[in-house]
Every structure is written in structure tokens, then in C-alpha cells.
């Protein structure tokens, strides 16, 4: 066995291990090559999109599908090149054409390797030794197995993407299409009656947990973004985190103690933060958008407006603005890192409540 064939066999094993860790082991950050390749393609697409100016935000929605195609091509090319390195030294001897005069160049080896990874026999090139026949058989099994695994993986990715979008749309509908957590809270307790609020929020916990785990199982989900910000993971998480923060800091804790201390509220808070932390840890996020004094002032007035929304809905409140700011400081930096990375500004993620509402 020549050095070239050893390198080829090692290359095939490397790519097979990458497919195994990405598709079968299915945990974010465990792939050998795929995570780095996906980030490279993402950086290239984002760089090209940046040249489009205002149209860039819409064009960036094509990044996910492009990365899927690029990853499949990357795996296919890697396995083909590895098989070609194994095959090339035996062209013209153990591997020949029926007409004779077999070319021995690397391009021919790539052709034979590609054919052997798809069907037994390698087209017009056939193996003439037991070792090469076994190699062609193994290549065909590898090709068929990888193809079926990748197709199954993509089905799961797009299924998880549909479920993520359905959750984001559900949350948006619960806010009345406003993206305002205060409006969502007021709708959960019309007239101050939060009897069914706990069960309504409980219905969101499972799909949110599934969305969080889907991003850990299928890192390709990181790169799918849509033109409409309502499908943004950062916006979805922002609404739920703002909702749970308002429940804890704006409601009358004695009157609404059942909701404030309920397990679904705590579960939504923890799971939304875990989802953002997963993206922040494994997605190539940038620096967070800094909060200046003007934004802090807007936050105070926005909180006042949120409390006013609740009061107008006849919800008993006992606002604690300082506690709200402290709790928000625990999760808002995650939103400010994750959101802009996918091309969503904070104005698209955060609902801008009217600031001329009554102040606390």
C-alpha cells in the first residue's frame, strides 16, 4: 500500500467521522470539519450580502439553503478525493477498462471513485483483483449509506425548522401581532383573571424545549433566518424573557402569586435563556450592541408603558422598575449578541412601546 493510498484512506475516514459526529452523534460543536466549513460559508455569504446594502437583509435568508448545499458538496468531494487517492495507483493494473489503454491521471481516478461511491463496478472501469473488488463494494456501501443518512438528516432539519417557525408564529399571535410581552401578558389575564394563564404558558414550554434541543441536535438550524423578524429566534426569546420578567416584576405578587411562582413561568425563563446561550456558544456571534444612557432611559419609559398596558387591562400591578432592570440585564446581552449576527437589529427584535404613556 503506497503513501498516497494511506493518505486517501485517512481522508475518507476523516470525512466519515465528520458525517458520523454531525448526523448520528448530533450535538452542536462535535463535528470535526462541518462546523468550520459551515462558518466559512456563512462568513462568505454574509460578506457578499454586505455588498448589497439594503437588500442584504433579504438576501441573507438564502444563507441556510446555500450552506446545506455546500455541506453536502463538501462531504461528497472529500469522500471522492479520498477514494481517488486510494484508486489512482492501481489504474491500468488492478483497475482497467474493457477496451484497454486505461488512463492513470488523477481526474480519471476521481471519475472512477465517484462512480464506485454510487454503483458497484465504477462504470466502464472494472476491478480485476479481489482487493479492488472489495474496495468498490465498500465504496458503494459507503456512498449509499452516507446518502441515506444525509437525506434523513435534512428531513429532520427542515422538520425542526417548521416547528421553530410555528412556535415563533404562535408567540407572535399571542401578542396580537405586536411583539409586545406586556400585550401578551394582558391577553393571558383579561380583566386580571389569570386562571388559565398557567396552562397557556405550559403549552409553550414543550415546543420551546424542543426548539432548544433541535438547535443542539442540528446546528444547521443556526444559519436559517427569514426576512420577517417574527420568525427570529432572538425575537421569540426576547418576548418570552420579557414576559417572564414582567410577570415577576410588574404583577401584584400577592394577588397573582399562583402565576408568579408557577413552574411554567420559570421553565420558559430558563429554556429561553438556554436557547440563546446555545446559539451564543456555537454560532459565530459578534460583540453585543452596547447600551447607552439614552437606551437606559428608553427602558425606564418602556417599562412604564408596559405597566400602563396591564393597568388598562384591569390587571393589578405592583411595579418594581429596579428589579426589572436587574433581571433584564441577565439576559439582554445574549439577545444583543445573537440578534444582530443574523441581520436583525434591536428595533426589529424589541417592541418599541409608545413612550408617551403614563409613567409609574
Describe this structure as you would to a colleague.
Helix 11 runs parallel beside helix 13. It is built from 14 helices and 2 strands; from the N terminus they run ααααβαβααααααααα. It folds into 2 domains: 126 residues, no CATH class; 202 residues, no CATH class. The longest helix is centred in the middle third of the chain and has 45 residues. Helices cover 67% and strands 2% of the residues. With 360 residues, it is mostly helical. The protein has a two-stranded antiparallel sheet with strand order 1-2. The C terminus is likely disordered. Keywords: Membrane, Transmembrane, Transmembrane helix.
Provide keyphrases for this structure:
about 350 residues, mainly alpha, two-stranded antiparallel sheet, about 65% helix, disordered C terminus, transmembrane helix, transmembrane, membrane
Q: How would you concisely characterize the structure shown here?
A:
The chain has 360 residues and is an all-alpha fold. The chain has two domains: 3-128, no CATH class; 156-357, no CATH class. The chain has helices spanning 3-25, 34-50, 56-59, 63-87, 106-116, 130-174, 181-188, 197-217, 233-249, 257-260, 263-282, 293-312, 321-341, 346-349, and strands spanning 95-97, 125-127.
Structural class: mainly alpha
Order of H and E elements? HHHHEHEHHHHHHHHH
- As residue ranges, the low-confidence spans are 356-360
Average of pLDDT: 88
Q: How large a portion of the residues is in β-strands, by DSSP E? A: under 5%
Count of DSSP H/I helices: 14
